[in-house]
Amino acid sequence: xxxxxxxxxxxxxxxxxxxxxxxKVFNSGYTKADVLNEALNQARLECSELNVxxxxxxxxxxxxxxxxxxxxxxxxxxxxxxxSPEKKEELLRRFVSLQIQTQGVVCEGLISLKEKMxxxxxxxxxxxxTRYDLLMKVEAMHKDNKVCHCEFEPSNIIVTDAGxxxxxxxxxxxxxxxxxxxxRTYLYFYLQGDKDGARQYLDLYCEMSASDAQVVKKWLPLxxxxxxxxxxxxxxxxxxxxxNSQIF
Length: 248
Known about the structure:
There is one protein chain. 48% of the residues lie in helices and 18% in strands. The chain has 9 helices and 10 strands. The protein has helices spanning 32-46, 77-83, 88-103, 113-123, 128-140, 178-191, 195-209, 213-227, 233-245, and strands at 6-9, 13-18, 21-26, 55-61, 64-70, 75-76, 146-148, 157-159, 165-167, 174-176. A hairpin with a 3-residue loop joins strand 1 (6-9) and strand 2 (13-18). Helix 2 (77-83) packs antiparallel against helix 3 (88-103), helix 4 (113-123) packs across helix 8 (213-227) and helix 5 crosses helix 8. The longest helix is centred in the middle third of the chain and has 16 residues, at 88-103. The model has no long low-confidence stretch (mean pLDDT 93).
């Protein structure tokens, strides 16, 4: 295996290319159950009408769990936006269209988004009264069973030279309300410091999905609180501050 061709480096994993295969190598602290769950999520979505790289193997390499899937040759939507800033709105519109297409899929077997959020908020560092208030709001929110990627970001969309778009990184996929997934994407742009991009994204999403922006925003503190349990300390502090300040 060729471990010299690094595609991406994240906090808890490194992605390599080995010929026509993509190797996602997780750090030793990543649990076997989490790796198998991500591979299972991806395998389930392979059976949908979405373009999802095929899982080829799950194995252990030098004591680290690894998901091996087919390599998709192309550029991420994030890179395309950086390369052609004048096309950002056009690319963002395509991004939103792909997200809406994804949310139109039903995939049996994915975890309930509500259950996942309840678990994460319960584990958060927020004070007990705030956690209780957020949990009550989660329980009261609309229930649905649509596919929510939960990390739908431009870096997780690969566009081939032929123009086909593939969706990667299904670790946090769940089934639930699409507007919660939209809130998570809005939060991504917001945390990147791209507040104009966040507003532009939300405007496009609501226009193209015929959704109410105020309903999406109701999900923001809930999504931020749930997200605070799965990130580094700096981002966790930022998310908790956002929830406590009710800045949304």
